Amino acid sequence: MTFIENAKQSLLHFLDGNGYDKLLQSILRGLFFIMICFCLPYFCYVLFSLLL
């Protein structure tokens, strides 16, 4: 096998196996964490500034 064929096989194995699912799961977890840490305090600030 050449290097390109080996890389292609390993990429297909990654996409077909659990690796891709774990990657997407970690990306979604990170986006959720960013949303909770940055958007929720800003929403509370806007809400309280409108009420006061």
- Helix-strand topology string: HH
For the terminal residues, how far apart are their CA atoms? 69 Å
Mean pLDDT across the residues is: 89
Count of alpha/pi helices: 2
Structural class: mainly alpha
Report on this structure:
- This protein has 52 residues and is mainly α.
- It is built from 2 helices and no strands.
- The longest helix has 34 residues, at 18-51.
- It is rod-shaped.
Give the arrangement of secondary structure elements.
Blueprint: H1 3-16, H2 18-51
What keywords describe this structure?
92% helix; transmembrane; membrane; transmembrane helix; 52 residues; mainly alpha; rod-shaped
Summarize the structure.
The chain is mostly helical.
